[in-house]
Amino acid sequence: MILNHRHDGCTNCYAKSSICYEEYPMQANGRLPHPYQLLPDLTRISRGRLHCERYRTGIYVHTTDSLETEDRDVPLRRARCLTIGVLLEGELEFSLAGAHHHLQAGAGHGCRVFVIATPQPTTLLRHVRQGRNLRKVQVSLEPGWIEQQGGYCASLTRTLSDWLGCDNRAWHWDADETIVHLAQRILEPAAASPDLQQLQTEYFAVELLQAAAQAQQPERPTAGGGTTHPLDKARHYIEQHWQNCLSLNDIARQVGLSVSTLQRQFKATYGQTVVHFIRSQRLRHARTALEQQRISIGEAAFLAGYRHPSNFVTAYKREFGITPGASSH
Fold first, then answer.
1. HEC string of the chain?
2. CATH label, 2-219, candidates 3.40.50.10810, 2.60.40.3140, 2.60.120.10, 3.20.20.80
3. pLDDT tens digits, one per residue of 183-238
4. CA-based, 20 to 30 A from 122: which of 24, 154, 253, 284?
C-alpha cells in the first residue's frame, strides 16, 4: 500500500475521503494497516510533502516534509506497534499515556531520535501548531514483524521486543551521524527507478532500526533481566516495588544517582516524571485486577494507592481514556 501526496492548501488532503488521515487510512475490513488513524475529520492542517508506504516484509515507512498551518490537538488512534523515528528539522509535539513530549531539531538543536511503544491500543494526541515546519522519518513495526525475525538478528529482535515492553511510553535522544544519514537517505531517495527506490528505502529502514537499537543498547535491560544503566535500574526497581511506599530518595539511592539527576534524566529519557511513572504502574496493575479478577472500584482504588475512589476514577480516566467501571464489565 502506497500513499504519496503533495498538498498545498487543499480543502481535503485526501480526495474522495470524509476523513483526512495524517498517516494511513483504515482498510475496508477495519484493520489498521499502520499504527495511526486520525479520529476526527480534520483538513488543511499542514502543507507540504507526505509519503507513506507498507513494504512486503511488514515494515511501514512514513516521511514528512511539511509546514503546519493551523493550531489543532489531533487525536490519533495507535494500534499495538513500535515506531522508531528521526526528527531532522522542526518541532514535533505530542502526548501519550499522560506524558507530554516536545522535540526540536535544527536552529541550534541537533536531530532527535524518538521511540513510541504502544503494546496496548491507545490514543496519541498530536499538538499541531501553525507555522511549525516538520521534517521527519518514521519506521513502524507490528509485533509480528519482530517475532518473524527470529534468529536472523537476535540482538535487534531482543532490543525491539524489550522496547515494546508492557506499557505505552515514548522516549527520545540525540541522533548520531549514522542515524541522521540513514534518515536523510529515506527522506530523499536517490534511485531513479521506483522499484529500486522501494528496495533502497526498505534497506535503509532496517539499517535505521539497527542503528537506533545499537545506540540505545547499553541503556536497555539485558537478556538475563539485569540492567546496565541507572535509569533502567530505576524503572526496574519501580516495576518490582510499585506496591511499596516509594520515595525519590529511596529510588535515587538504589540506582546511585542524586534525586535531582534522577528526576532530570528520567524525564528527559522517558518523557514523564518518576512520580508519574509510579502512578502509571499502580493504575495499570489496578486495571489488570479490574479486568481479570473483577475486584470492586473501591478495592482497585486502594490497590493503586488512592484513599478516595473519586480521585482514583479521575486519574484512571485520564490515564486510559475510560472509567474503571468500563474496565470491570
1. CEEEEEECCCCCCCCCCCCCCCCCCCCCCCCCCCCEEECCCCCCCEEEEEEEEECCCCCEEEEEEEEECCCEEEEEEECCEEEEEEEEEEEEEEEECCEEEEEEEECCECCEEEEEEECCCEEEEEEECCCCEEEEEEEEECHHHHHHHCCCCHHHHHHHHHHHCCCCEEEEEECCHHHHHHHHHHHCCCCCCHHHHHHHHHHHHHHHHHHHHHHHHHHCCCCCCCCCCHHHHHHHHHHHCCCCCCCHHHHHHHHCCCHHHHHHHHHHHHCCCHHHHHHHHHHHHHHHHHHHHCCCHHHHHHHCCCCCHHHHHHHHHHHHCCCHHHHHC
2. 2.60.120.10
3. 999 998 876 678 888 888 888 998 999 889 888 654 444 434 444 478 888 888 88
4. 154
